[in-house]
Please model this.
Amino acid sequence: MLHRLPALVAALWWGSLTTIGFLVVPMLFAHLPSPTVAGNMAARLFAAQTWVAVACCLVLLLVSRPRQAAAQYPWAQAAMVFILGGMLLALLTQFGVAPRIVARQDLRVWHGVGTVMYALQWCCALAVLWQTLRHDPQTPTGGGSAGA
Model:
């Protein structure tokens, strides 16, 4: 079971991004009484999503290589740039873009930037999930494909 942890964590990251961004937030704007109320709740959900993403990325980094080994697992070698990129995108969105949206500073521009960054983070999480499912996590070096 432990060898499947990277795939489970990547699935949690990608699934939470998918659920919040493509299901829950649109439903807030469709069903809450005003865009302001929906926007405030969406901001809270996106903040929580940031910490889910950071926690998942940290776990993925911690399990990226076997104990006492210099080489990373094959999935980690292929996914490292996406793990780091996704975590950076999450943090930049939360601390760089979200405050500008909340302050309604050039709302259209910053909302667009935030949407693009969220979509890029979603792509990073999907790439990590794909890599964790593609490689056999028990093989610390080269090959070991478990099928695509």
About this structure: The chain is about 75% helix and 0% strand. Residues 141-148 have pLDDT under 50 and may be disordered. The chain has one domain: 2-134.
